[in-house]
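Is this the right way to post structure tokens for a design question? Let me know if I should format differently. Anyway, here goes:
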């Protein structure tokens, strides 16, 4: 089975199945198509499947022309998971959120495997790319794959390879970002080398799926901890009357031993705010408490309170209360220059200010209408920015620093600007650093 699958991959006759056609799955699909593989994409969202099959993209930084080009010859999207048997490789790119108790929710993974399970056959490889805790691949996926009598490492092959997409970053692509992967067995590892080596410039094998799973968590926990540190430093610097961004710029001139991280209004995105909880949850199984990681999480969560307090103080200094004030939030995506709102700290700021009685509006050049979300409801559309519209608000809160904003125009016309991103380097009477 192994040699037959390797021959298919190496000759590009293998059909690649990608499950979950979002910020991870779509770029991966395009990369396999660019390399000459036929790709079958699976998603439970009928609207997404219809758009893709019509050659349209629903993610801003992925062009419809690229989707249409792939669709012409090599790509098809479907909601029919019974077609899983057509794929020689099944790559799972499904969400792994937290439940209401801040515990890992891997139900998207397990439900996906259960849906595909009746259609597993000899000579297939399954690779999980969703972020999760160490042990998920061999504890949850392998038993489900083997329940029909097929043996992982002999009949079926199983990998874990964490996604490393950075949406909106033109400097790194699916092809150029090194690809870490681990296999359940040596045969699985060999299949992984062929599968990913065919489309990625550099592949990085590790000794096990658990090592690969922990690699992903370490990458994002490293960032979360360092952002937590600099967010705490921001609050300290503010009390001392020091501009933390000036300090960071100065420290970054040191050519060794320092990597600059920048404070903000909180953590966003699907990885950094969530991944630490996957490890802290799993660590309890071994009687361990991840105090350092949890402390960073507390700081990153509470920094939104600091921004709200600075907004309240700025309004008070202007003889206005939050209650009844009109506040315009600039940027509601979780990071600049993308349309991705997952775990966006901007939304948390909007809710907290609304609870205090503020009348909230937003402007975001990447998100025309506030989308329907499970936990957050705002019936709003993006405000067009011009000198008149900006001047009408009691306060403008810069939450996400998109490049498309005209920062000089905003500064010249806003009554108050709360800058939570350090965008304004110079001092101005109406600029409040937060």
């Amino acid at each position: 089975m192994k040699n037959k699958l390797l021959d298919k991959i190496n000759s590009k006759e293998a059909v690649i199945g990608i499950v979950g056609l979002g910020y991870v799955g779509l770029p991966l699909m395009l990369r396999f198509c660019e390399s000459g593989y036929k790709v079958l994409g699976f998603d439970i969202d009928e609207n997404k499947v219809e758009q893709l099959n019509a050659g349209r993209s629903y993610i801003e930084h992925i062009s419809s022309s690229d989707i249409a080009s792939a669709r012409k010859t090599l790509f098809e999207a479907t909601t029919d998971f019974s077609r899983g048997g057509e794929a020689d490789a099944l790559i799972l790119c499904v969400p792994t959120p937290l439940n209401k108790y801040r515990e890992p929710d891997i139900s998207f993974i397990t439900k996906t495997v259960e849906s595909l399970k009746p259609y597993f056959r000899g000579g297939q490889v399954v690779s999980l790319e969703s972020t999760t805790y160490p042990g998920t691949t061999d504890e949850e996926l392998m038993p489900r794959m083997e329940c029909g009598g097929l043996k992982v490492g002999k009949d079926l092959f199983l990998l874990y390879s964490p996604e490393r997409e950075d949406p909106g970053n033109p400097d790194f692509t699916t092809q150029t970002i090194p690809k870490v992967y681990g296999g359940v067995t040596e045969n699985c590892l060999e299949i992984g080398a062929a599968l990913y080596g065919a489309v990625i410039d550099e592949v990085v094998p590790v000794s096990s799926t658990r090592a690969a799973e922990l690699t992903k968590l370490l990458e994002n926990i490293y960032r979360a901890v360092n952002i937590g540190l600099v967010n705490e430093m921001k609050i300290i610097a503010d009390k001392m009357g020091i501009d933390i961004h000036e300090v960071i710029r100065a420290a970054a001139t040191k050519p060794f031993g320092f990597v600059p991280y920048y404070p903000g209004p909180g953590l966003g995105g699907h990885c950094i705010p969530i991944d630490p909880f996957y490890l802290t949850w799993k660590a309890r199984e071994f009687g361990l408490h991840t105090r350092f990681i949890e402390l960073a999480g507390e700081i990153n969560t509470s920094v939104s309170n600091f921004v709200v307090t600075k907004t309240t103080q700025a309004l008070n200094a202007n003889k206005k209360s939050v209650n009844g004030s009109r506040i315009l939030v600039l940027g509601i995506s979780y990071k600049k220059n993308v349309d991705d709102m997952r775990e966006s700290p901007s939304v948390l700021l909007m809710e907290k200010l609304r609870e205090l009685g503020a009348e909230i509006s937003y402007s975001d050049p990447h998100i025309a209408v506030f989308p329907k979300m499970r936990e957050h409801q705002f019936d709003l559309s993006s405000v067009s920015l011009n000198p008149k519209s900006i001047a009408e608000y009691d306060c403008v809160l810069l939450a996400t620093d998109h490049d498309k904003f005209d920062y000089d125009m905003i500064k010249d016309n806003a009554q108050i600007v709360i800058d939570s991103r350090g965008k304004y380097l110079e001092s101005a009477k109406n600029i409040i650093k937060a």
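Format looks fine. Someone answered above. Worth noting: The longest strand covers residues 15-19. Residues 209-239 form the longest helix (31 residues).
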